[in-house]
Amino acid sequence: MTVKLPPFEEVAVFHGHICPGLAFGYRASEYAKECLNADRSEDEEMVAIVENDACMIDAIQYITGCTMGKGNMIFRDHGKPVYTFILRNGEKAVRIAQKPAFGQENLFPDVVDIQARMAEGTATDADRARMQEIRTEMIEKILTAPLDEIYECKEVKPELPERARIFRSVPCAVCGEPVSEQKARVQDGKIVCIPCFDEYTRGW
Description:
35% of the residues lie in helices and 18% in strands. It has seven helices and nine strands; from the N terminus they run H-H-E-H-E-E-E-H-H-H-H-E-E-E-E-E. The longest helix has 20 residues.
Protein backbone atom coordinates (compact mmCIF):
# COMPACT_ATOMS: atom_id res chain seq x y z
CA MET A 1 0.00 0.00 0.00
CA THR A 2 1.01 3.63 -0.38
CA VAL A 3 1.61 4.88 3.14
CA LYS A 4 -0.07 8.20 3.87
CA LEU A 5 1.81 10.33 6.37
CA PRO A 6 1.22 13.83 7.67
CA PRO A 7 4.06 16.27 6.91
CA PHE A 8 6.94 15.99 9.38
CA GLU A 9 6.49 19.66 10.23
CA GLU A 10 2.90 18.96 11.29
CA VAL A 11 4.06 16.26 13.68
CA ALA A 12 6.67 18.68 15.05
CA VAL A 13 3.92 21.20 15.88
CA PHE A 14 2.22 18.51 17.97
CA HIS A 15 5.51 17.56 19.66
CA GLY A 16 6.79 21.10 20.16
CA HIS A 17 10.11 21.03 18.29
CA ILE A 18 12.06 19.26 15.55
CA CYS A 19 14.63 16.73 16.74
CA PRO A 20 16.25 13.42 15.72
CA GLY A 21 14.04 11.50 18.15
CA LEU A 22 10.88 12.77 16.50
CA ALA A 23 12.31 11.84 13.10
CA PHE A 24 13.03 8.31 14.33
CA GLY A 25 9.44 7.97 15.54
CA TYR A 26 8.15 9.34 12.24
CA ARG A 27 10.01 6.69 10.25
CA ALA A 28 9.13 3.88 12.69
CA SER A 29 5.46 4.77 12.23
CA GLU A 30 5.89 4.74 8.46
CA TYR A 31 7.52 1.30 8.61
CA ALA A 32 4.77 -0.07 10.85
CA LYS A 33 1.99 1.13 8.56
CA GLU A 34 3.83 -0.23 5.54
CA CYS A 35 4.55 -3.66 7.07
CA LEU A 36 1.03 -4.07 8.47
CA ASN A 37 -0.74 -2.49 5.50
CA ALA A 38 -2.64 -0.45 8.06
CA ASP A 39 -4.28 2.95 8.22
CA ARG A 40 -4.32 5.22 11.26
CA SER A 41 -6.06 3.59 14.20
CA GLU A 42 -9.28 5.47 14.92
CA ASP A 43 -10.08 3.32 17.96
CA GLU A 44 -8.02 0.30 19.08
CA GLU A 45 -7.59 -1.45 15.73
CA MET A 46 -3.82 -1.25 16.18
CA VAL A 47 -1.83 -1.52 19.40
CA ALA A 48 1.69 -0.17 19.89
CA ILE A 49 4.02 -1.49 22.59
CA VAL A 50 6.80 1.06 23.04
CA GLU A 51 10.00 0.43 25.00
CA ASN A 52 11.01 4.03 25.74
CA ASP A 53 9.30 7.28 26.66
CA ALA A 54 11.35 9.66 24.50
CA CYS A 55 10.46 12.01 21.62
CA MET A 56 9.80 9.11 19.24
CA ILE A 57 6.61 8.27 21.08
CA ASP A 58 4.87 11.53 20.19
CA ALA A 59 5.35 10.84 16.48
CA ILE A 60 4.04 7.30 16.90
CA GLN A 61 0.93 8.53 18.74
CA TYR A 62 0.23 11.24 16.17
CA ILE A 63 0.75 9.12 13.07
CA THR A 64 -0.54 5.67 14.04
CA GLY A 65 -3.38 6.70 16.35
CA CYS A 66 -1.96 4.47 19.09
CA THR A 67 -2.18 6.72 22.14
CA MET A 68 -1.72 6.44 25.88
CA GLY A 69 -5.09 8.02 26.62
CA LYS A 70 -6.99 5.72 24.27
CA GLY A 71 -5.32 2.68 25.80
CA ASN A 72 -3.79 1.24 22.63
CA MET A 73 -0.25 2.35 23.46
CA ILE A 74 1.50 0.30 26.12
CA PHE A 75 4.71 1.62 27.69
CA ARG A 76 7.43 -0.76 28.85
CA ASP A 77 10.30 1.06 30.51
CA HIS A 78 13.20 -0.76 28.83
CA GLY A 79 15.05 2.29 27.50
CA LYS A 80 15.24 0.76 24.01
CA PRO A 81 14.30 2.22 20.60
CA VAL A 82 12.08 -0.77 19.93
CA TYR A 83 8.39 -0.79 19.01
CA THR A 84 5.91 -3.62 18.47
CA PHE A 85 2.78 -2.95 16.47
CA ILE A 86 -0.14 -5.38 16.59
CA LEU A 87 -3.36 -5.53 14.59
CA ARG A 88 -6.25 -6.47 16.87
CA ASN A 89 -7.84 -8.65 14.23
CA GLY A 90 -4.99 -11.04 14.98
CA GLU A 91 -3.66 -11.08 11.45
CA LYS A 92 -0.19 -9.69 12.02
CA ALA A 93 2.30 -8.09 14.39
CA VAL A 94 5.74 -6.60 13.74
CA ARG A 95 8.64 -5.63 15.99
CA ILE A 96 10.65 -2.65 14.76
CA ALA A 97 14.08 -2.14 16.33
CA GLN A 98 16.57 0.61 15.54
CA LYS A 99 19.84 -0.69 14.10
CA PRO A 100 22.90 0.26 16.22
CA ALA A 101 24.77 1.34 13.08
CA PHE A 102 22.25 4.14 12.61
CA GLY A 103 22.90 5.60 16.04
CA GLN A 104 24.15 9.18 16.27
CA GLU A 105 27.42 8.09 17.91
CA ASN A 106 28.23 5.80 14.97
CA LEU A 107 27.30 8.28 12.26
CA PHE A 108 29.00 11.24 13.98
CA PRO A 109 31.80 9.91 16.25
CA ASP A 110 32.80 13.40 17.41
CA VAL A 111 29.42 13.83 19.11
CA VAL A 112 30.55 11.80 22.14
CA ASP A 113 33.32 14.22 23.15
CA ILE A 114 31.16 17.26 22.41
CA GLN A 115 28.32 15.96 24.57
CA ALA A 116 30.77 15.24 27.38
CA ARG A 117 32.07 18.81 27.27
CA MET A 118 28.52 20.15 27.19
CA ALA A 119 27.64 18.09 30.26
CA GLU A 120 30.75 19.37 32.07
CA GLY A 121 30.01 22.97 31.11
CA THR A 122 33.26 23.32 29.14
CA ALA A 123 31.79 23.33 25.61
CA THR A 124 32.99 26.06 23.28
CA ASP A 125 30.98 28.07 20.76
CA ALA A 126 32.50 25.84 18.10
CA ASP A 127 31.23 22.77 19.97
CA ARG A 128 27.72 24.18 20.12
CA ALA A 129 27.78 25.09 16.44
CA ARG A 130 29.01 21.61 15.54
CA MET A 131 26.31 20.05 17.70
CA GLN A 132 23.66 21.97 15.79
CA GLU A 133 25.20 20.82 12.50
CA ILE A 134 25.09 17.20 13.68
CA ARG A 135 21.50 17.56 14.78
CA THR A 136 20.43 18.99 11.41
CA GLU A 137 22.36 16.37 9.43
CA MET A 138 21.05 13.56 11.62
CA ILE A 139 17.44 14.58 11.06
CA GLU A 140 18.02 14.73 7.31
CA LYS A 141 19.62 11.27 7.31
CA ILE A 142 16.74 9.76 9.29
CA LEU A 143 14.06 11.28 7.07
CA THR A 144 15.68 10.26 3.79
CA ALA A 145 17.38 6.90 4.45
CA PRO A 146 15.74 3.65 3.32
CA LEU A 147 13.67 2.26 6.17
CA ASP A 148 15.60 -1.00 6.32
CA GLU A 149 18.83 0.91 6.91
CA ILE A 150 17.38 2.51 10.03
CA TYR A 151 15.31 -0.31 11.45
CA GLU A 152 15.08 -4.06 11.54
CA CYS A 153 11.47 -5.15 11.09
CA LYS A 154 10.51 -8.68 12.11
CA GLU A 155 7.12 -10.32 12.04
CA VAL A 156 6.29 -11.68 15.49
CA LYS A 157 3.48 -13.70 17.03
CA PRO A 158 0.54 -11.43 17.86
CA GLU A 159 0.10 -11.29 21.65
CA LEU A 160 -2.86 -9.04 22.18
CA PRO A 161 -3.21 -7.14 25.44
CA GLU A 162 -6.63 -6.71 26.99
CA ARG A 163 -8.68 -3.86 25.60
CA ALA A 164 -8.62 -0.66 27.62
CA ARG A 165 -11.08 -0.71 30.52
CA ILE A 166 -12.75 2.07 32.49
CA PHE A 167 -12.56 1.61 36.25
CA ARG A 168 -14.66 3.20 38.97
CA SER A 169 -12.99 6.01 40.93
CA VAL A 170 -13.08 6.15 44.72
CA PRO A 171 -11.95 8.95 47.06
CA CYS A 172 -8.58 8.56 48.79
CA ALA A 173 -9.06 8.46 52.56
CA VAL A 174 -6.01 10.71 53.08
CA CYS A 175 -6.12 13.45 50.41
CA GLY A 176 -9.71 13.06 49.29
CA GLU A 177 -8.83 13.03 45.59
CA PRO A 178 -10.42 10.43 43.28
CA VAL A 179 -8.32 7.39 42.40
CA SER A 180 -9.08 4.54 40.01
CA GLU A 181 -9.99 1.36 41.91
CA GLN A 182 -7.41 -0.50 39.85
CA LYS A 183 -4.60 1.73 41.19
CA ALA A 184 -5.84 2.15 44.76
CA ARG A 185 -4.10 0.68 47.81
CA VAL A 186 -5.43 -0.40 51.20
CA GLN A 187 -3.65 0.98 54.25
CA ASP A 188 -4.88 0.60 57.82
CA GLY A 189 -8.15 -0.67 56.38
CA LYS A 190 -8.67 2.47 54.29
CA ILE A 191 -8.52 3.03 50.54
CA VAL A 192 -5.66 5.37 49.63
CA CYS A 193 -3.96 6.56 46.43
CA ILE A 194 -0.38 5.64 45.55
CA PRO A 195 1.16 9.01 46.60
CA CYS A 196 -0.48 8.72 50.04
CA PHE A 197 0.46 5.05 50.49
CA ASP A 198 3.42 4.30 52.79
CA GLU A 199 5.10 1.41 51.03
CA TYR A 200 6.75 -1.31 53.15
CA THR A 201 9.84 -2.75 51.47
CA ARG A 202 12.22 -4.01 54.23
CA GLY A 203 15.02 -2.35 52.30
CA TRP A 204 14.80 -4.17 48.95
